[in-house]
Amino acid sequence: MPPRRPAKPARHSLWPVLLAAALIALGALAWWMYQRDALPPGTDPAPVGDAVAPWRGDDTAPRYPIGVQDPDDPDAVVDLPGLGDSDAAFLDALAQLLERTQLESLVVPEFIIQRVVASVDNLPRRSLPARMHPVRPTPGAFEPEAGEPLRLGTGNHARYAARLSQLESVGVGPLVDLYERWYPRFDQAYRELGYPEAHFNDRLVEVIDHLLEAPEPGGELELVRTERGYAFADPALEAASVGHRAMFRIGPENAGRLKAWLRELRSEVTSRAAVGAGARR
């Protein structure tokens, strides 16, 4: 189960889909979207329902089957450690894609898969519990553009452009290879999160689609000061999901680049699902 101890307070930052690039296909989502930024909501609202609710079909067959579909079959997943003992082995696997010293400085090394699964599942919601964050905070602080009214400013977009370049440099194929091999544990973590008859890959595709639907507000976005930092002045923007608010913060050019990467990720994940489904017919 995900850890129940509250996360240690830390400075906010946003660049999560990035090193989650190292946290594989879905971690890539969680990483960018979920590191805390100094532009939080004015309050810490309870979830108000999904913008994209987990799919509930008439049966339990996955829409996008990928990898081994029975996480409880010991013959199928014999080479994977149990979910509760997976952290060290999964870090070793991630280290094949990202330098270990860099990885260890970024990833919270406990309950890695569970944190990623919870983060991805919450992207369409209003908030994410701090204890679910899969990565450590990034150094640096958000600075609004000087003047009144306060504006997000294009200077902050540059904070994310370099990180996005790192994400783009990591091939989607190797990330999905890792995800597919470890999928039984991701699926298990999703079921233990409270969806015993659902499938994590289905949720991943739903969440990618949600992010791709993020609107593109024009112009520089106005901010207001709050007790916790800053919030969007436009109530409609502030009421958006965590994933959509992250898209607003990184700026339209970066959001366009990220959406292009997400489309590639979706294509890879769903094409493998199609192959897997065909092989089982």
TrEMBL record:
Pfam families for this protein: DUF3014 (PF11219)
InterPro entries from the UniProt entry: DUF3014
Residues annotated as transmembrane: 12-34
Keywords for this protein: Membrane, Transmembrane, Transmembrane helix
Protein name in the entry: DUF3014 domain-containing protein
The species this protein was found in: Alkalisalibacterium limincola
